[in-house]
Amino acid sequence: MQLEGRVRSLFEGANLANLGTIGADGYPQVTPVWVDYDGEHILVNSVEGRAKLENVRRDPRVAISIYSADSLYAPAFVWGRVVSTTSEGAREHMNKMAAKYLRQDEYPSQGETRVIIRILPERVRG
Fold first, then answer.
1. pLDDT of the residue at 111
2. Which of 55, 66, 80, 81 has the fewest CB atoms within 10 Å around its CB?
């Protein structure tokens, strides 16, 4: 399923999203995240060892809410499935996110191992 219209523009803009994953104990875990959209997948950049990354490797089902800072009362919601996690290209992708969200050419690295989480949208509301 491709994102279209206002929902797509929310993911392409510098808007904060909330990523919901399922923890090992079965409870939801929600994390604010920067997001990107490549025309097919929602991309979230994370760091190896973070709970959200461990959660999606165990259970790929996720939910995302996103809203514009200009319109907090018009969110969009996406339910989907993580189809891959990879460190390939993750540093470059994080620099792209730094340009989008921080207006900086490079993300200030702490020497961590970055990972791209690719999410295939399955249901959309918004």
1. 83
2. 81
Please, are residues 10 and 63 in contact by the beta-carbon 8 Å criterion?
no
Give the residue among 95, 89, 86, 92 at the shortest CA–CA distance from 115: 86
pLDDT of residue 52: 97
Structure token digits, residue 56 = 């999606």
Q: How far are the Cα atoms of 28, 64, 113, 117 from residue 95, in angstroms, in the given order? A: 29, 22, 13, 15
The SS3 of residue 83 is: strand
pTM of the shown model = 0.94
Determine phi and psi for 55, rounding to 5 degrees. -60, -45
Q: What is the pLDDT of residue 126?
A: 86
Length of the chain: 126
Taking only the tens place, the pLDDT of each residue in 59-78 is 999 999 999 988 888 899 99
Residue ranges in the chain modelled with pLDDT below 70: none
Specify whether the CB–CB gap between 28 and 20 falls below 8 A.
yes
Tokens of 124: 């959309």
Rounded Cα distance, 98 and 2, in Å: 25
With H, G, I as helix, E, B as strand and everything else as coil, classify residue 28: strand
Kindly state the tokens that stand for 118.
Answer: 């690719």
